[in-house]
Amino acid sequence: MPHYPHSHVFVGPTQTVDIAGPHIQVLDNVTGVVLFSTTAFSNDQKDVLLKSGPVRCAAVDQEFTHVVTSAEDKMLKVWQLDGLKLLSERELPKKPTSVAFTADAQTILVSDKFGDVFSYPFTYVPLTVKQKKDALSSHENPSGGQLILGHASPLNAFLLTPDERYIISADRDEHIRVSWYPKGYNIEMYCLGHLKFVSAIHIPKFDSATLISGGGDPVLKIWDWMTGSVRHDIEVLEKVEPYMAVRALKRKRGYEDGEAPEGGKFRRKKGRGKAKKKEGSTDAKDSEEPETANDVPEEEPKLEKVLVIRRIQSVKSDAGPYILFSAIGTTAVFCFPLKASVASVDIKAFDFGRPVLDFSVVGEQTIVVSLDGEWIPGEGEMATANDNDMIKILGFAGGELFEKEESLAVLASSLNSSLVSATAEEVKKLDLYGDLTSMPKYASDGDIEGEGDTTLPIGAPELSSSETAKGKKGQVELSKKELGRIKTKQAVLAKAQKMEVDGETKTEEEEAPESKRARSDGGSGMGA
């Protein structure tokens, strides 16, 4: 019978939180015993979990006392780890892409597919019917979340800087933004240079002035995020490509997702309202039906390799600081030294023979890796693993990754044996490799060129990363849809700023963050 793989594994000082599909388990690190599990809930409680769908986002607080989760039902749930008690649940406005606790665990941050980051207090007090909807959100927030910032496209990743004075966010439109926290309407810096989506960002604990980012580009970028300048690019695609085990369905780029061919050609998707037919008009209805070409045989679906960086982390060892990363659908975890002269030849890989779903660094040099142990290769794909383990433990020393059998061995064995059963359909719903097709852009959302108001709103970057790199145009080519989103969100944030100026006296904490340059000079920086 199939089993859920481990989608999130959080290893704490004494306990481990394991999330598999819709279920949560808490295990003892020493004995490996499952202390609490939602699989032991009553049938009614389990039915609610199953209806919620698989957990998409999760985070554990620093004290390792609570876990926050969100599943397909868009409910933000806060659990007490002791006994796995559900403390609260609140509805989110859009599907979340990431969740995080602040250091004091009193605030929960949530990013969503609409491009916003909201904050929610740890203690949830339900809104009354008479309470007004949040006036400071770009879309209805049913739980009174406070808008921190907004992008014009889905947010793929965000993080708070170690001092929690800034929030760094990355989206599907190549942009990395540095904003004040919690006053996110103050944009401090843009880190522009990516040509494709950004799906992973990381600040090393030992070098708070450095940001590493990656996504669909063939390179990882190492930034001084305080100045928005790129310190170094490292080519990774050549090293990652041999380990790409899972392939995505090849689709035509430059056209709308889901557009049907019209006589063998694709057409641009019409804007909202343009395809509406007049009442009683059959011509309009007919015009909406895609034309078919019966004499053209249907092409067989083709598969292609797609790079999507999944996770970036860092370790510090006797060999110096190193960066670890993984990519969706690849069978390896990769590492390279964090130094100015780093090149693709310095990248090393540890191959598991099965797709790596995620990994996390525990302590200084231990890495817990989650695998798709029951993955069945498709056409053109190959599995080389000798076992079906879902969890592997790696060590790091001398600039090398190696299997670390003695560390957390009992815990790993328990995680590999205490699997949660699922049906084939339930496993399929996990859509473990969906980002291989959803992250890349296959079409432009833009309207017909020259139609409508294309004036850039205040605050939008004058140069896009892709256009700057290509050296073609001096402005961002934003669609009317993107322009509308930016204008709406900036109007909302401007209103928030005006309210603060008109009705509040700024405290010392609300003043501008400390000089970034001063903190940057105090950082460790990259090695020579």
In a nutshell, what does this entry contain?
Its main location: nucleus. The chain is α+β, with helices and mostly antiparallel strands and 528 residues long.
Pairing-aware structural class of the strands and helices?
A: alpha+beta
Alpha carbon gyration radius: 24 Å
- Largest beta sheet: what is the strand line-up? 1-2-3-4
Question: How many runs of DSSP E, i.e. beta strands?
Answer: 30
Largest sheet properties: 4 strands, antiparallel
Percent range for β-strand residues = 25-35%
Low-pLDDT sequence parts: 132-138, 254-288, 443-478, 505-510, 517-528
Alpha-carbon distance between the two ends: 52 Å
Labels describing this entry:
single chain, 528 residues, alpha+beta, four-stranded antiparallel β-sheet, globular
Structure report:
This protein is an alpha+beta fold and 528 residues long. It is 15% helix and 32% strand. It is built from 9 helices and 30 strands. The chain has helices at 43-52, 237-240, 282-288, 409-417, 424-429, 435-438, 465-470, 480-503, 516-522, and strands at residues 8-11, 15-20, 23-28, 34-37, 55-60, 66-71, 75-80, 85-91, 96-101, 107-112, 116-121, 146-150, 155-160, 166-171, 176-180, 187-191, 198-202, 210-215, 219-224, 229-235, 248-249, 303-304, 309-317, 320-327, 332-337, 348-351, 356-362, 366-371, 391-397, 400-403. Strands 1-2-3-4 form a 4-stranded antiparallel β-sheet, with helices on one face. The longest helix has 24 residues, at 480-503. It is globular, with a radius of gyration of 24 Å.
